[in-house]
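Thread title: Can someone regenerate the structure for this chain?

I was given the following input by a collaborator and told the matching structure tokens would be attached. They weren't. Posting the sequence so someone can regenerate them.
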Amino acid sequence: MRDEISRRYARHRAAVPSDVLNEPVAKAGRRTLIPIVAAIAILLGTTGLGVAALNKPTKLPDPVELSANADAYVSSKSSTQRHGWSSRLVARKSEASILLRYTVPPVAAGINRKATLVLHRLTPGTPGTIMAATGPGGWAESVSYATAPKAAGTPIATVADDGKSAELRIDVSAAVTEAGVLNLVLAQPEGSNYAVFGSRESGRSESKLEISYLRDSDGPTPSMPTVAPTKLPTKPTTTPTGVPTKPTTAPTQPTTAPTKPTTAPTSTPTSTPTAGPGCSVSALLVPSCGAWFGAAANPLGSESWDAALPAFESTIGRTVDIAHYYNSSPKVFPSADMIKRAREPGKKRILLLNWKPEMGRTWAQVAAGDPAVDAAIDAEAKYLKTTFPEKFFLGIHHEPEDEVRPAAGSGMTAKDYRAMYRHVALRLKANGVTNAVFVMNYMGTPHWGSQSWFADLYPGDDVVDWIAEDPYIFGNSKDWWTDFANAVNRKDTYTYPNWPGFYTWATTKHPGKPIMLGEWGVNEQLTFGKTKADILNTVDEGLAKLPALKALVYWNETKFDPVGLTRLDSSSAARSTAQQVLDNGPLARRLN
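Best answer:
Regenerated them for you:
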């Protein structure tokens, strides 16, 4: 596979089209509150932005790309459902709308901002329009349609959406004239299907706000349109049973206080997993026999996130050893549903929890001790010590390669990432967290491994217990549609001749560290005479060649761009082969 696909292979947390309005609260690492907009125009009231004027600079500031402080979507079809933890943002005419919050940085007097909202599409839809409006504060990522503020706002722009382009760009300069908190609402005035974009939990597919700068003399900043806002639908007069509501007068600033699960964890904790007869598990969760098998079980069809895992286990005919979830601050984790799965009698599982702790800050800001992020780290440490004492795998901001900005001062260099990871890990340890087994999770492709800064990402052997990569098997290149062992140690001798393969790199540069596949998956295709079932049949042989590989965590998904159909029941041959491979040999379940 050449450079183009290697770059595209950052994809993350892809959407399940049939489940866009049924994703449960249980998804790890997701948000908390959000407002709704139902009809053609879902415009909300403007949040005030504080002015910050500095001395006039000698040159224009560098452009910035901002991640959302918070984002979510709300739907009248699931009025009590909270979608703030979802990897997707969904808009649909008269039904679902999107809430976004950014913090606009200050600039000197005499400098204008050019602001573009860049929405990365997760699943194709049909043509329509997307409208952006200013929105109210008073929401958190745990928001639902029933609890969302219903204040009217001012339209910014309405753009045509072809339903298929990889990204949709909306000029929102009219709303970005001052520094401070910016709340936006997106609705679909016209369209016959869902528009699904990436949330801040979706990795590379995250939707962002791009800001560039120009002087007053270079041209005027667009003014807000004078179109009268359309009122939101009337809020229900009764509160749905069993769902807590949030006051609509909450402060507009992003909250930094962690939120706790609404239900208490069940069952009794066990601090260290044990293996079957003749096998043992080390303090760093390394099995002495074979390798762990785990899954990130995405919802299929109308499944909830919590129901997706046992449904996947029913497909493969066994319980997974590792249950993989995704988290972001300030929400503390693991949630009650995750803990339930970890402690389920007779089906106990080790949790693999990816965590993005930045809350919109750069890696450099986190490493320097940003107060809000440090408070969230401390709260997480306290929560773990009081709520979840079991050993678990913890990945800190997985797959960082595609987010590196090598320019000095960007705050997002490879060295900034290393410093951020170390700061978070060492602060957890200083707070007495002893049950986290730290995972450094790379994308691991030849393209990224060949970058001059790649070695600078590694946080250090003292804070990394396992090294992980995410090798997917798909495409029409022999470098990418290949057997299991070659995928784990993928090379591209034509384009990146100096890259030895991820497995070789990891075991050579950091000998003794166990290796994990934090994610992997195989597309349902027939290329070079090999099917998915044929590829799965090479797993046992591959494990024999790769003795340091001690955990394989499968990404089970219906549609995963650009990989394709990774779910293990995509064909009867794939399902039966998966069952056979996972029930025998090195991947047979040994966890007690």
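Residues 371-387 form the longest helix (17 residues).
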